[in-house]
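User: two proteins, same treatment. go.

Assistant:
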Amino acid sequence: MILIPSDLSKVIDAAWEKTRDVPGFLLENKARFVGLLAACTPAEGLIVEIGSFKGRSTVMLASVAAHYGLGPVVAIDPHNFNLSTTSTRPGPSTLDDFLRSLHTAGLTGQVEFHHAFSKDVGKSWTRPIRLLWIDGDHSYTGAKTDFDRFSAYVNPHGIVALHDSLNPFPGPIRVFVEDMLRSQKCGGAGFVHSIAWPSIVPRMDKNSHNAAHRWKVGPSI
C-alpha cells in the first residue's frame, strides 16, 4: 500500500527550491517526480543514484530523504561526464561542482558518495535498495550493466527508474522494454515524460541469504 505523506507537496516544493539552481539536465517536472518516488516508494532499503553529474537529482533525492528520515542517498559517479554513447574519452571532471552543490544545499552529510564507476561499485554491492535511479552511461551496455548489477537488490515493491528513456539514447529504452517488461520481475510500470519506471514484484529465491531478494527472470516474450 502506497501512503502519500500529508506534507508531500510542501516537501517537494522545498526540495525543488534547493534543486532549481543546480546545473543539470533534469527538468522541474521530472525532478519533482523523482522526489515523489523517494518519498512514496513502499519498500525498505536505500535510495541509490547511478549518475549524479553536478548533483541536480542528488539534491532532490537527498532533500526528500532527509525530511522523511530515509537515510543517506548513495550517489555513484566517476565524474568524467561525456554525453556521447559511442566514445570512451572522458570529459572534464564534474566532481568539484557536485560537491559544491551538496554543500550549498546543506546536504553533504545526507549523501554517501562513491567517486567510481557504477560497474565497479556493483561488483561488491549487497545492500537492499528501495529506489534505484539510473541516469549514468546511456549506451545499451552501460545501462544494462547498471541494471543487472544493482536490480537484484531492489526489494519487493521497490522502484527502478531510468532517465532519458524517450530521448535519443539506445540504452535506457532497451533495458526498460527488453530486460524489465519482458520478465516476471516487473509489476506496474509507466512513463513520466522521459523517465521510465517499473515497480518490482520479485519472487523469493529460496537459496538467497541476502537481505534483498534476488529476482528470477521469466521467459522472454
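Protein 2:
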Amino acid sequence: MGEPKLKRLAESTLRNVEVRNGIEVSGYPRSERAKVLHVGVGAFHRGHLAPYFDTMNAQLDEPWLIHGASLQTPRAGQQLNPQDGLFLHQAHGADKPHYRLIRSLLRVGYVAEETDDLIAHIAAPTTQLLTLTITEKGYCLDTVTGLLDRDHPLIQHDLTTDGAPQTAIGFMLRGLKERRARAGGPLTILSCDNLIQNGRRCREAVLSFAELWDPTLAVWIEAQVRFPSSVVDRICPAVTEADRVRAQQLLTLEDRGTVVAEDFCEWVIEDDFAGAKPPLELAGVTWVDNVASFEARKLRLLNAGHSALAYLGGLLGRSTVHDAIATPTLAGFINDLWLEIGATLDGDAASSAPDYCAALLTRFANPNLDHPLEQIGTDGSQKLPLRIIAPLQERLERGLASPRLTEVVAAWLYWQWGTTLSGAPLSFSDPLAAQFKSVLGQRQRCTVPAAIDLARSYPPLAALLGRFPAWESDLGQAFASLPDKLLGQTEAR
C-alpha cells in the first residue's frame, strides 16, 4: 500500500500548524467581504503583496482582505480556491529561512469564467483598492511611445466585443463603468509592475481606452479614481517541485499554492489615494510624494543587472542568478555595467547606488534562492526599453561610450536564435517571438548582418540606430566578439 494521501491545506485543516516547524500564522478574522481586488495572482503577488497585507491585517480589527482575478489561465484559482486562498510563504536568506501561512487572500476568479462576478467586485462600494501585477506586457503599451497601443489586437477585442475582456485595461474599464452606474464611490488603482511612473502609465492607458470606448466614463475616472505609482522590490523565483515538497513536509498538508521569495523586501508607494487607504506602514511600506528616485535605482540597477545576468549567463549555460554571479567574468561585468548606468542616475538614486549595488551582489549570490535565468529572460522585448535601452540612449546622447550596455543588447539578440553558445536550447517566451522568427527566417547562424536586421525590426532599437548611426558599428562589434569574451575561445563564423 502507498502512503496515505495528505489532506489539502485549508482553514478547516490548519490545526496546530502555527506551532509546527516554526510556521507563523496570524489569527485575524476572515469574511467574504474583500476591500482589495488584485489582478494577476502569480508568484510575485503571493511572494510580495499578499504577505504585506497579511502582516498589516494581523494588527487590525478590520482586515483588508483580497479577492483575486486571473486573466490568462484558471490555474491560480485551481491552486488556491480549494485551499480557501491559503498558502505557505517561504522566505529564504543566506541563513535561516522564515515560513508564514498567508491568509490575506480569499479566493481567485478566472475572468473568462466569472466575468460578471469579478466586475461586480470592482463596482462594489466595499472595494477600496485595485492592485495590479500583470507584468510589463499586460498594459498593452507601445514599446516606443509608452502609450496604450490602440491597435493591439486584444485592445481592439475589448473595445469592440461585449464578451469576457482579454486585457487588464479592458477588464478594469468594464468594472469602472459598473462602479459609476452603482455609485460605488472613489477607487484607487495601484500598479506594482516594473514601469517608470507605473501609476501614470496605468492612468494614461485607462483614460485612453475610456476616451475611445465611453468619453463620459473618462471624465468620471478623472474625478473619482487615483493612480499612485509604486516601487516593489523582492526577488520571487518560479516555484520548483522541491519547494512544493518542502511545503508539504512543513505543513503535513498538501499546498499547491506555495511561493518562494528572498528575505529582503521593499515597497514604496506614492501617498495619493482616493477614499480609504490601508495602513500598510504597519507592515513596512514607505509612503512618499514621488517614487522617481526609488524606481530609477531599482529598474536600472537591480532589474538591469538581472537582465544582463540572464542573457549573458544564459548564453554560457548558467541556470540561476547565483550560478551566474558566481562566474568571475560575469560578476566583473555586472560591476562595470552598474558603473555605466550609475552615470545616468541623479539625486538620491545616485548617492545611494554604491551601497545598493553592494547589497544587490549579496542578494544575487543567495545560495538558497534558485532564480531561473530563463524566467528573467522571458518577455525581454517588454523589459529591455526601461532597463537597458533608456540608460543606453542617455549615454549616447552625452557622447559616452557604453560597451557593457551594448553587450547586453548583443546578448539579447543572441537569445532570439533560441540556444546557448554551446547549442543547448533556451526555454523562454516573448510577445514578439513570431516577428523575430520571421526576420531571422532560415538564417540559422548568428551573424552580424542578421543581428542588425533583427535590431532594426524591433522599434526601440530601430529608433536608437536611427538617431545614432555610429552605434550600429559598436553593436555589430559587440555581437561579433561576445562569444570570445564569454567563452575565451574563437568560434567559426
